[in-house]
Design goal:
This protein is mainly alpha-helical.
Length: 342
C-alpha cells in the first residue's frame, strides 16, 4: 500500500513538472481551464446528493453553523482560522506578487480579488460545508473528534460514508477526484512563484527552473510523506500553513502601507472600475496589523511553550528541514542582491 502511494506521489510530481515546464499560458492556464469546471461540477453533484439524503443530513449543517463560543477563548482556534483564510486566499505567500508581475500597470486589481474570494468561499464554505459533515451525520448520527482530526475526515470517514450510500462508488470517485483537483492545482499554482523568481532574478530557463523546483519539492517533502503518522505532516502544515502565513502577512501589510503611505489607496484604485472606499486604507494601516500582532503575542504567551514541547525526533527533523529551506531561500536572495550591487 505504501509503495503504491509513493509511486503515485512520484507520478504527480512528474505531471506537475510537465505543466510547469510548459509555462503559464501553455501549461498552467490550460490546466486551470480543464480542472476548475470539473471541480465545480463534482462539488455541485455531491452537494445535491448529500442534501437530498434526508432530514438528518441537515443536522450536519446545524453542527457546522452553531457556534461554540467557548472556543473563542482558545488562541489556537484564532491562529488556525486566520491561517486557513490566508492560505486559501494566497495571502502571506508568493503567488499574488508572482502572478501580479505579469499584469499591466493599470489593471483592475480590485475586481480580481473580489471574484477570487467569491469563487473560493463558494467552494469551501458552501460546497465544502454541505458535503462531508452532513453526509456523516446522516449515516452515523454524529461526528467524533477522531473523524475531524488531520485528514481522517476526507480519507477515513468519507469512504465509510460512500460505502453506505446508494451509488456510493460513483460518488466516491467524484469525491476523491474533487480532492485531487483541489490539491493538484494548489501545488502547481504555488510552485510558479519560485520558478518566476529563478527566471527573473537568475535568468534560468523555464525547463531548468521547473527541474530545480521539483527537485527541491521532492527532497523536502519526503519527511512528511515518509513519517506522516509520526506527526511530521501536521506539524509542518501548522508552521507553514498557519503561523508563518500570519507572520509574513503582518510584514507584508506593514511594508505595503509604509511604502505607499497615503497613496496606498490611490495605487489600489488605479485603472479600476471598482473603487475601494477610504476605510480600506485605515483597515490595512491600523486594524489588520494590530489584530495580527495581538494574535501572535497571545499565541506565543499561551500556546507556544506547550506546542514546542509536544514533539518527537521526526517532528524536529521536519522543523530543521523547513529552517534549511528558509536558509536556502535567504542565500538566494542575498546572492541576487549582492550581484545587483556589483
Amino acid at each position: 500500500m505504501f509503495y503504491s502511494s509513493y509511486l503515485f506521489y512520484i507520478i504527480v510530481l512528474i505531471i506537475v513538472f510537465i505543466i510547469l515546464a510548459k509555462g503559464i499560458s501553455g501549461g498552467i492556464e490550460k490546466m486551470v481551464k480543464m480542472t476548475m469546471p470539473l471541480l465545480f461540477l463534482f462539488a455541485i453533484i455531491l452537494t445535491i446528493r448529500v442534501l437530498t439524503l434526508g432530514p438528518r443530513a441537515l443536522e450536519g449543517l446545524t453542527y457546522i453553523w452553531k457556534p461554540d463560543w467557548e472556543l473563542l477563548k482558545n488562541w489556537n482556534v484564532w491562529l488556525m482560522a486566520t491561517g486557513q483564510i490566508f492560505f486559501t486566499l494566497s495571502l502571506g505567500q508568493a503567488q499574488i506578487p508572482a502572478y501580479a508581475s505579469y499584469m499591466g500597470e493599470n489593471e483592475d486589481i480590485a475586481r480580481g480579488p473580489m471574484i477570487q474570494t467569491l469563487l473560493n468561499e463558494t467552494c469551501e464554505v458552501v460546497f465544502g460545508g454541505c458535503i462531508a459533515i452532513p453526509a456523516i451525520f446522516f449515516f452515523f448520527g454524529s461526528i467524533s473528534a477522531d473523524m475531524t482530526e488531520g485528514y481522517n475526515l476526507a480519507f477515513i470517514a468519507m469512504p465509510k460514508v460512500m460505502e453506505s450510500m446508494p451509488g456510493g462508488r460513483a460518488f466516491g470517485v467524484m469525491w476523491f477526484l474533487l480532492l485531487f483537483i483541489a490539491g493538484f492545482t494548489t501545488i502547481v499554482v504555488f510552485l510558479q512563484s519560485f520558478i518566476s523568481f529563478l527566471q527573473d532574478e537568475f535568468k534560468v530557463s523555464r525547463v531548468k527552473s521547473a527541474s530545480i523546483t521539483i527537485a527541491l519539492v521532492f527532497f523536502f517533502s519526503n519527511l512528511p510523506v515518509l513519517f506522516y503518522h509520526q506527526g511530521v505532516f501536521d506539524d509542518m502544515d501548522f508552521w507553514a500553513g498557519s503561523l508563518l502565513l500570519v507572520v509574513v502577512s503582518l510584514l507584508e501589510v506593514l511594508l505595503f502601507v509604509s511604502s505607499f503611505g497615503a497613496n496606498a489607496l490611490e495605487e489600489l484604485n488605479r485603472g479600476g472600475k471598482i473603487r475601494l472606499p477610504r476605510g480600506i486604507f485605515y483597515i490595512m494601516k491600523y486594524i489588520t496589523p494590530t489584530y495580527l500582532l495581538f494574535l501572535l503575542v497571545g499565541w506565543l504567551a499561551t500556546s507556544a511553550p506547550q506546542y514546542m514541547t509536544q514533539s518527537n525526533i521526526y517532528i524536529w527533523a521536519g522543523r530543521i528541514g523547513m529552517i534549511a529551506l528558509f536558509a536556502l531561500l535567504e542565500i538566494l536572495i542575498y546572492t541576487k542582491n549582492r550581484r545587483d550591487l556589483q
